[in-house]
Amino acid sequence: MALSSNTPSLRVLFFLAMVVYAAHAGKAAPKEKGKEKSGGSAAAPEAASPEAASLEGATVSGGSSDISKAGAKGDGKMDSTKAVNEAWAAACGKDGAQTLTIPKGDYLTGPLNFTGPCKGSVTIQLDGNLLGSTDLGQYKSNSWIQIEHVDNLVITGKGTLDGQGKQVWKCDKKYYCKILPNSLVLSYVNNGTVSGITLLNSKFFHMNVFQCKDITIKDVTITAPGDSPNTDGIHMGDSSKVTITGTTIGTGDDCISIGPGSTGINITGVTCGPGHGISVGSLGRYKDEKDVTNINVKDCTLTKTSNGVRIKSYEDAASTLTASKIHYENIAMDDVANPVIIDMKYCPNKICTSKGASKVTIKDVTFKNITGTSSTPEAVSLLCSDKLPCSGVTLDGVKVEFKGTNNKTMAVCNNAKGTATGCLKELACL
């Protein structure tokens, strides 16, 4: 007997057949051999799961936090501290590559605390100018812009960090005056780049690099009057793999100072002046200072500075350390007061005693192809300790002549051991 399609049992069988067919049709067809190779029509890739898609998006996501949209006003008068700090927090708190944008304009701020770690990498795009407040009561530490515990940091642009130091330089060159805020401080930063920007008239150091690794500073301009107090261009300490290149620095103190604990430092193509030169040290002032080693300074020009390439340490050093493997090469001097100097009796403003027992060892230092003119007769001064003489000092092709007319070029080498080759006869004092 034929069954009607309206019969309940037939309807059940028909439904089951459709389920089986749908399940079979939903399966991916097996790949044919050779189709996965180039030239074949490979099967379409399976769609990524929502979780995988979300993870992939996090790695390529990016965004911009504009300080003007956070409430900052570029009139040079309104305090934009809160807006800039909030814009940093927004950029630091997002995944992927983020940009903190400082657009054109003059933005007045007090202390800026850019603290990590951040979820992604952050670029500070400095197109405008930040002005450091001259109200010293706002600064609870010795920093204006403090960036710490941040990895993969970039600071770039054509803008300026203006510390407005002229309004607060009231120390009259007294050593014990109030310590003023540094302009830009990098602390515990790994893999950072600072490029293109200008630092102007810092209240204290223009840039301080502390406990950092893999830092590049390139094509930066640092400017302050030659008589401004303690306005070092770039100071570093307890840091490794720092590169400074193509940078122009003129300040009232060291253009670059390489402090204790510095290793693997490379300085090339730097123009320095006015200032106190490119210095290692001072060393030994504080307890528990660490060694300085593998320092390379090449292809630099110094003009009208009070020192050229210098190593300085306290004779009554408070800590025991060694400065070694220091290499200066292809340095041009123009009217520099002390072009080549090791000073192990460094004692500024009579804050130390010359009767102390030296604890700083200086060895394996090379001065190669140092040329140009000196503003004083003493073109080379190796003033080492009688208790810990310098050793392994090399003068190679040192040809710096006194620019004046009444005195002859000369060198003084005290307690220094090493060799001199290819130098002016007057300078081969080793």
Automatic annotation (TrEMBL):
The keyword Repeat applies. It is found in: Secreted, Cell wall. Residues 29-78 are annotated as: Disordered. One of its GO terms (biological process) is carbohydrate metabolic process. The active site is at 276. SMART domains: PbH1. It holds the Pfam family Glyco_hydro_28. The keyword Membrane does not apply. Residues 39-58 have a biased composition (Low complexity). It is an enzyme of class 3 (hydrolase). One of its GO terms (molecular function) is polygalacturonase activity. Residues 1-25 form the signal peptide. Its EC number is 3.2.1.67. It catalyses: [(1->4)-alpha-D-galacturonosyl](n) + H2O = alpha-D-galacturonate + [(1->4)-alpha-D-galacturonosyl](n-1). PROSITE patterns: POLYGALACTURONASE. Residues 29-38 have a biased composition (Basic and acidic residues). Keywords: Cell wall, Cell wall biogenesis/degradation, Disulfide bond, Glycoprotein, Glycosidase, Hydrolase, Repeat, Secreted, Signal. It comes from the Eukaryota. Its main location: secreted. InterPro entries: Glyco_hydro_28, PbH1, Pectin_lyas_fold, Pectin_lyase_fold/virulence. Belongs to the glycosyl hydrolase 28 family. May function in depolymerizing pectin during pollen development, germination, and tube growth. Acts as an exo-polygalacturonase. This is Exopolygalacturonase. It comes from Digitaria exilis. The lineage of its organism: Eukaryota, Viridiplantae, Streptophyta, Embryophyta, Tracheophyta.
